[in-house]
Amino acid sequence: MTRAERISSGIEGLDVLLQGGLIKNSINSIVGSSGTGKTTFALAYVYQGLLEGDHILYLSFEESPSKLMSEAESLGIKIKEIAKNYNDLIHLVESEKIVEFMTNILPALAQKLKYKNVKHTRIILDPLTPILWEFPSEKDQRKVLTKIYHHLSSLGTVLQTIEEPNAFGQTDIGAVETRVPIYLSDSVIHIQNLGLGGKYNRTCKIVKSRRTAHHEGIYPLEFAFGQGISIDTSSVAEIIIDSKTNDVRYLELKKKIKEMSKDKDPKKQIIAQIANNLLGEREKREGKENIELVNVLTDPQILQEVKK
Amino acid sequence: MQITAGTTSHRSINQATKTIIKDVIDNINGTPDFLLVAFTPNYQSKEDYEYALAKICEESGTKNVIGGIFPGVATSNELPTTQGCSVMGFKGDEVQIQPPFDYTNVRINPKKGAQEIKNAYKATDKLSKLGFFLTPGPFYQTDAFEQLKVLDTFFAKKFKKMFNLIGRIINKNMGKNGYGSTLFADTILKTLVEDGVKNALGGATIDLDMEKCYQFSGENVFQNALVGTIFSSDKLSFNNNWTFDKSQHSRNFFLTEFLKSSGYVQKINKKPANEAFLELIDISRDLYDEAFGKLSYASLLYLSALENEYEDYVPFVSVCHPILDGVIATVPEKSLCNDNIKADFFTQSGTGIQKSAFECANNLIQGLTDLRFGIFINCSNRLLIAGDKIDKENKLIEQALGEDVPFITLYSGGEFSLINQKPIYSAVSIHGFVAGEPTVNTKNVVF
Amino acid sequence: MSYIQGISSELEDLIFLEDVEASMLFRIDGNVVESCFNKKYSQELLRTVQWCKANVEKVSLEMRSNNLNKVTYELNEFCVLFFVVNSITILTALANQNVNLSLLSIEAKRKSQIIANYL
User: Fold this and answer.
1) Which of B83, B161, B164 sits opposite C100 (nearest CB)?
2) ipTM confidence
3) pTM of the model
4) What does the pLDDT look like over B309-349, one tens digit per residue?
5) What CATH number was assigned to the domain covering residues A6-238?
6) In CATH, which superfamily holds the domain spanning C3-118?
7) C with B: 3 or more CB pairs under 8 Å?
């Protein structure tokens, strides 16, 4: 796996889960239903960018800049202290202008910034959902988003928030409404709030992260004054110290699964998927046991079973 | 008097031992006088138990330890565990607890085992005294299934899946050397009566797989031994008692034909026992198999109780099996003497079991005040019937004794009591004893 | 010991019981919080694990709406026991059908109470 250049997300714990942070010039999606903390995620991302001296382009499709600022303030994210004139950072795109903005203005803006040789930019699309509504067909969505992503990713690293349409407690992240942006994203972070209290009430899960051997469990998440959101990765921290994670056998196994997932044989793809799921849950399993698992999974008899 | 009781649970015996020492034994200031130690059988290896006991003796500073393995162990204020250890520790002058005695090969010579108890019992002249002993669990004597031999191997295989408990005894221990457990416990109790011992409480160590069961005395781990001690006191009184779930008594029947060597009942009411048994529980063969095919312990819901000279009923387990014509029962062999034995039929329920535990504890506290502690020997079959509701039973005991009274419950493979020279050996029952100050006899107060 | 190590250790205790093949802590939406497996894998076991994962949401909804503490299923060669830990997590023990269910449920109840303290 080639080491990609990464930037810090600004969310405590997330960088650990993503093996160092978001990949530079990638498209990253935060998916979650209302009130899960998507915007807070975005604000923490902005704040980290400001600390690192990045250029910020926050495109808000719903909230006014002042409202977003007061939200940041209430969580102790001191964007105002660093960027005196926040109106330069945050731009409200009104709903009637979305189509024009997406098809003409944004590509032009991106071009302009590119020619200006602006340093790395953090681009925030919050939320992407109104755009998706303007282009109901998946085909159109794909067309518009591919174009936009192409321009934006050459400028910097994109973080977009997507409203999850599902009802309470359901986790059908593959819903029609979110399918296209998820499909086009390099990484997808799913945040949930079950609303029942307790440690695993609010959680974060990395659903997808290209070029990253990310952690696949669900991790408790909480709002933290000063940093917006923090993810409890105490279970992961120990794995990092543990030499088992870097065990060659473990890496070998990951490789084997990856190869299998690319195989044309659909049976092998299914097996790879199952293995990947199980591995994600069992990062702590010993390397040797992992190898055994794959041996079981690649057993010709089991292949027969799957075929059936 | 300092008394501590606690339970710990862990997959590793070393860890469980470490925690029990830290959380329970160390709570006693100074060296404890006596420790009652009960482990669950899941740790299996004898060396493991030896190591654990050595550690307990070393850390506590006393070798006055007895105990054994039981499928479930519990103490007051704790959930019962099936994977861990319970300990009760004593220090103080109110109750004298004699250094433990042990006698190996009790299965071969139960009378000699009873002698050990008697000797220790006679060695103290305190006002109140009670013998406490633990024995090996159920074993079948060599000729137990002699008359079934033709069908042996076939049954052994079939039994294993259908009846985990009884099936496994037969499967694994048929033909092994040894005395039938029911008989040796019975013999011990009767010998004690003859020797003038008044009160005793005992239980059989057991592993539900009927493999090896261990008894502890000091640092020693035995496989076929009787271990015990005598509790005595001038200041405190001891009450002991027993009961079982009598709430659902259905009808009477007669055991008309049986194997005198094993408690295997061939005919009930002159009909094949199996058929008669199903008639008694009023259920069809198919339904019985469907309901209980995989739940071996469900059969334990049915008890046959025999009348004896001391009590109205003493209960024993009856197990019905699809292939056998007879019924397997845990009736002591010596009780099977006449040709027509009247028995009563009881159905056990979770609620009934809980109520009977409360009843037992409630009877125990009569005439006592300021209770110091309690020791209960409960049947492991009751543990199986109750399942995860077993903690309710312990809560009820706690309710009866009072919140701060420490007690320990050992889920055994046989319960024995000698209550004022009345020997009780029974199955699926709860036996217990408590220590407390006798209430002042108002008749003696002169106004 | 971190809370997750504690949970993991409790789950591991369960698979040390005879005939218990796996123990998992699920969130009610089917996400796995922590899990522990017996060293011997089998296709049947994997299939049953997948079944648990796919159905825990349905089961938990049923358990919550009917105020159930414990639900037991028998499927394939296995017996699956769901035990409520708290409002959002469920302890699942997967055992061979010959398992002594009573003993397992005593221990599962014990574990669920300990795990609830961690969460």
Assistant:
1) B164
2) 0.77
3) 0.74
4) 777 788 887 766 656 677 767 777 677 777 788 888 888 88
5) 3.40.50.300
6) Dynein light chain 2a, cytoplasmic (3.30.450.30)
7) yes
